[in-house]
Amino acid sequence: MVQKRSTFLILILCILWYICSSTNNVIGKLVLSEFPYPMTVTMVQLLSITIYSGPFFNLFNIRKYSDMNWRYYFTFIVPLAFGKFLSSVTSHFSIWKVPVSYAHTVKATMPLFTVVLSRIIMKEKQTTTVYLSLLPIIAGVLIATLTEISFDMIGLISALISTCGFSLQNIFSKKVLKETGIHHLRLLHILGRLALFLFLPVWIYYDMFSVLSHTAIANLDYRVISLLFVDGVLNWLQNILAFSVLSLVTPLTYAVASASKRIFVIAISLFVLGNPVTWMNIVGMLTAIIGVLCYNRAKFFSRASKTSLPSYVNDQYQKLIPNGKHNQNGINQNLLFKPSNLSSGSSMLVM
């Protein structure tokens, strides 16, 4: 009975996550079509995370985060906040310049970036099967790119930069979660709030005066303003839902759910926005998504074959770790998740 309730809860959360994510992407496209300020849309989303998260977390008694020394904060948290803003802005640039369906197809290359960056940064080697599983992802994205009717180079580059940025955030967010024991939702709140304040001066310099003189704001176009507000709320909600699903399921289940969500977003955007596609374009999208599923399965078997859990803590950073009682493997014993829920096979951040 308990198992059925847990499965039902996860199913409901996934459905809500898919609905929020697809609606958020469609509304984001509509907003940027009439209000072409990706940086401002990003700032609205960060403002939503900053405003809504505190009262929501207090209402549901989400535990407070542990203290961090300033050196650790500037070494990891500040770069993560910078990466969150940059990835979000470039993601909005991609949605602005190219169809949502194509942008999400390009973002399916995240496993490729994760494998390469993990190899460079964490010295993490993969099995031959994992490397082979990347081939259909690359092939699918290439087919979708070559057959994309509304192709735009800026949109492609922005989507790739965004995907690379989210991959880096995934790697280092997991590191921070393991080393500090901070609640995943509290980390989301910290990064959103810090990113907002770090880039407020940049937004004021580049966007604020143009935004204030834009007809939609100057004439108080309630449609555009309402869409901006709803976009911010939906982005915050899908972050909450994604992190909640992640905390309840295994990395493989979450990775499959995330890939399925991408299919759902692509399908809904094609149906609602009606951007023209060819059959080869659809084949490319499906090939990329199937490649992601193959990668997730290959990662699962790769982890299952390992006899010991690899250490995620580099010796050079031992002295930076706050509240630092560690076991013999150098891993903080105050973990929120089981080790399996923090492995490199799952995506920590919403795209």
Question: Can you walk me through this structure?
Answer:
The chain has 351 residues and is mostly helical. The chain contains twelve helices and no strands. It is globular, with a radius of gyration of 20 Å. The two termini are 34 Å apart.
Give a concise summary.
This protein has helices at 2-34, 38-59, 70-97, 100-107, 110-121, 128-146, 153-180, 184-213, 215-218, 222-248, 251-273, 279-304. By secondary structure, it is mainly alpha-helical.
Task: Kindly provide the radius of gyration, computed on alpha-carbon positions and rounded to a whole number of angstroms.
Answer: 20 Å
Q: How many β-strand stretches?
A: 0
Class by SSE composition = mainly alpha
Shape, per Cα inertia axes: globular
Contiguous helical run count: 12
Helix content: over 70%
H/E topology pattern = HHHHHHHHHHHH
Major sheet, described briefly?
none
Mean pLDDT, nearest integer?
A: 83
SSE layout:
Blueprint: H1 2-34, H2 38-59, H3 70-97, H4 100-107, H5 110-121, H6 128-146, H7 153-180, H8 184-213, H9 215-218, H10 222-248, H11 251-273, H12 279-304
Question: Main attributes?
Answer:
single chain, 351 residues, mainly alpha, 12 helices, globular
